[in-house]
């Protein structure tokens, strides 16, 4: 396996604490962590990429760090390895961030736990409650079948294209509808592109004309 160049998001803000964690296990750098994994015939970077192909670079390198830590700790049980991987993930959380405060990195190890069938014990950091064990799928639950489908033919769909993707826009769109007594059912918003988005929602068919009139007025004020 060719050595990759270590580059990831906010690297300058993260690398100090990452190296501190790695150094505590006798690992000099992420480059060495990758070599440690390669010597064991594993490639966490590629594994992460194939498991979630839209993940960020820092996630891939976090798994490299975690896997190297697991190797250094001589983990022989999956649960112990998952905990070690969690240490690597947590090392990538920026100090003082919401992720760091909530220990989000440890939760992300659930992704690997699911893939390899590792039971996960989820507990609160604030109480002594026993928490929840996440294990394999229950065959009885998975066997439940859909017994019926309800649908409503009296709905009309309205789509607004090129809506500014910024705070307060949704309120500007839906408050006038609510003020006019028009009930909105389903709402779908597309991913932002160039600062704009498309928004689709449904209203009762009998209220469609009124909804269109209101939207024409709203669009003049927000576009």
Keywords for this entry:
223 residues, alpha+beta, three-stranded antiparallel beta sheet, two-stranded antiparallel ribbon, 11 helices, 48% helix, 13% strand, elongated
Can you tell me about this structure?
By secondary structure, the chain is an alpha+beta fold. The protein is built from 11 helices and 5 strands. It has a 3-stranded antiparallel sheet with strand order 3-5-4, covered by helices on one side. Strands 1-2 form a two-stranded antiparallel ribbon. β4 and β5 form a beta hairpin. α2 packs across α4, α4 packs across α5 and α10 runs antiparallel to α11. The protein is elongated. It starts with 10 loop residues before the first helix and ends with a helix. About 2% of the residues have low confidence.
Strand order of the largest sheet: 3-5-4
Described by strand count, sense and barrel closure, the largest sheet is: 3 strands, antiparallel
What average pLDDT do the residues reach? Answer: 83
Q: Which regions are unreliable across 5 or more consecutive residues at pLDDT < 50?
A: 98-102
First-last Cα distance:
52 Å
Helix proportion: 40-55%
Number of strands: 5
